[in-house]
TrEMBL record, chains A, B:
One of its GO terms (biological process) is gamma-aminobutyric acid catabolic process. The keyword Protein biosynthesis does not apply. It comes from the Eukaryota. Belongs to the class-III pyridoxal-phosphate-dependent aminotransferase family. This is (S)-3-amino-2-methylpropionate transaminase.
Amino acid sequence: MWTRCVTTVAQNAIKTGSSRAASSIVSGEPKEPKIVTSEIPGPKSKKLIAELDSVTQSSSVQFFADYEKSLGNYITDVDGNVFLDIFMQISSMPIGYNHPAMLNVFKDEKRLKALVNRPALGSFPGEYWPKKLKDVLLSVSPGLPNVMTMMCGSCSNENAFKCLFMTYMKHQRGENVDFSELEKSSCMVNQPPGAPDLTLLSFHGGFHGRTMGTLSTTHSKAIHKLDVPAFDWPTASFPKYKYPLEEHFKENKAEDDKCLAQVEELIEEYNKKGRPVAGIVVEPIQSEGGDNEASPEFFQKLQRIAKKYGAGLLIDEVQTGGGPTGKMWCHEHFDLETPPDIVTFSKKMITGGFYHNIDQKPAQPYRIYNTWLGDPGKLFLLEAFLDVLKQQNLLDQVNSVGAKLKSGLHDYEKEYPSLLNSVRGRGTFLAVNASTTALRDKLVGNLKKKGILSGGSGDNAIRFRPSLTLQQNHVEIFLDRFGQVLKEVK
Amino acid sequence: MWTRCVTTVAQNAIKTGSSRAASSIVSGEPKEPKIVTSEIPGPKSKKLIAELDSVTQSSSVQFFADYEKSLGNYITDVDGNVFLDIFMQISSMPIGYNHPAMLNVFKDEKRLKALVNRPALGSFPGEYWPKKLKDVLLSVSPGLPNVMTMMCGSCSNENAFKCLFMTYMKHQRGENVDFSELEKSSCMVNQPPGAPDLTLLSFHGGFHGRTMGTLSTTHSKAIHKLDVPAFDWPTASFPKYKYPLEEHFKENKAEDDKCLAQVEELIEEYNKKGRPVAGIVVEPIQSEGGDNEASPEFFQKLQRIAKKYGAGLLIDEVQTGGGPTGKMWCHEHFDLETPPDIVTFSKKMITGGFYHNIDQKPAQPYRIYNTWLGDPGKLFLLEAFLDVLKQQNLLDQVNSVGAKLKSGLHDYEKEYPSLLNSVRGRGTFLAVNASTTALRDKLVGNLKKKGILSGGSGDNAIRFRPSLTLQQNHVEIFLDRFGQVLKEVK
């Protein structure tokens, strides 16, 4: 039922562009949010938070969820509140809660055994592994022939960074030139030339993870970085656009040019002082640091700069990848001349990892290696998700549902210009700015009280990160509640 | 059957110290290894390696395994070879292959839903989470009251390192003193004072991971580190003992003192030059870099030095934790005055993470945080493993089986003094040196041809990393095959 009816309903919704609530594609999904406690978190959540706090840092917990009752686009908390979830575990649940296709994965004995007998994939992979990498991960590759699996976004980026450094040094050294004895001995005590003083260029507002390599390229919030030593690497400005885009074409193009000029200046400066830039690390939309976007032309030119200076281009699709922008990979909107050198992923992709070109493949074993190198269990879940995505044309649905959501947000920014501005994004991967941080926090908080679970991005933005199964009727519910909230705070 | 007979058989084996092969505790486990191909990897594995190589770096792959057929202590490859596995996925499978207790975990609908609806544990944990952290992880804590879950050993260490830095700075700043504006702005561009120039002291031969923070404390093999920029942090010598220990007490004590003096000198040197040592990072046995061990007195004194200089002590039990040394945590053999500040784990613990004291708990949210913060599915598997460990007194079995294995190795080093030396380790977490690297590689290779899957550690050691279900009969099989190999190469 669940899997049968979805295509038809979704396609009808697309065809008709109906503004009436389409019937839910998730059998048994709640019809609307329901808030039963006067405060959120409610009393049961509060008790559990206190219990958790005796064991671990718990002050980031918003509420405790009931993952048996949560369904489709709705998350239920332990106090019985039911939220329409447009944040979806920080953009990570691709097709919502308790999707039958996902629940079925480990009912298959072979997959269960692959999950439980977790191998060291770099040394003793299971028979199924090469075929699964091809059929599942490479079936949605953004034009890159190789893939490495990892555990999460941070370690995907960490290992991808290492590939950028190794490839840069391979080019310096010559393709088949062996490491020198001095390189081998000096790297053991963290000194050049074996541990060379290479750098990566990243962008203000970017987020690439919280481990110490990736944290050195993360520049979104101070609380992520305070007290942690960091590599002294170059940071360039990322474009800050004026909205609506069609009215600010010239200024935004100038902004692109200014940022790109800075990228080039920084590369030249760092190369000159003997700290070469081995790679450029960038999100296609700055997904934590304010949902800042840049034009296809910006990314095309950025790639040309990377090529000019022999720096690898890494596009971090940890949050944008897996379909929410209406394409499998957000950077596919940019019409790049060639694929990026590396594309990292995690979150909606369920497994972490990165695609890369052959130039980025390490020639020697054990350079990009760890005990588990990912987890077959996660690849089987990804397979189930991608089957649903393909069978049900979820990317089309994302585009039509996203268009409706964006249009509704535009209406509100016109109605409340002192409260909202800068509606932006692609697919359902959207954002809107509130006029102040305090207002943004109030809007997110009041939405929650009305049963809508959303999230903030950067200082002022509300970010939309629903699952790919969000439909027209969910958008209508959201817009209705958002309208109420805006009316209350104006 | 599997779960019923084990205690009795194991206890009988302990009581009798029987040298006859006890009947296997794993119902249906092969009686002995069986090699059916003339080369390993066999033809089917070779074909799959070629297939894998078109998709990803594959030259570290030893063979492809059949995880449906592998059982207990035996791993079966796709060519039908059956190996007694004393390497166990680089020390990570705690109770062997296809253990019924593990296969049962996700037959429970509630646990399956916790696995499939993977939450952002720092924001929307499931109702079950606080109780599971307490009942499962804290039930085996080495005296530390708090725990954070992570995904793997590297990210456990990365995040634990961050705690060391944050705690050090908290002590500098004063408990409730807020960050300065300068700290907040400077950290965003990777500069002090916000991103302070703190260091961690680690040891030559140590291994703590391959992400960029942990890699800066890893000093086991050049191939792990070449071409990757590293933090310029102090590295001290780790004791290198002469064996047998009882004949070299004086020299080994002098070795301890020399290394400890160097630790103290390095801390003073780095503190003096404004690059304070915020923590000491050490394995209880250097598990990748040669299975180097140090005395309880060494670790007691190391802890005193750490306390003297206000540096946190992190004991990395990623490979040693979970029982293989005959105690749940290897450092519990050391009778430390207080627990270490932080103990990291992964591998046999199935989930990554770290235990810590309250001083190391960040006061603010989002400082130690990421999207998933571990994986409930892994905690449920750990719960099943720990139930088996407790019910079947596996730590006792590890001690008795390890004693037999160690005694057999001692016999061989006496018989072949020009080939073998320095038998060492605790429980079944043992090692023996070959006289040269070439010989070690040959022994490991020839063992494999006789159906024993083992691994190397450092330059010269063979390391033993069996599951906790290794029994006397497996040891007899190993010793028999090892004897044949030694006879052939002498």
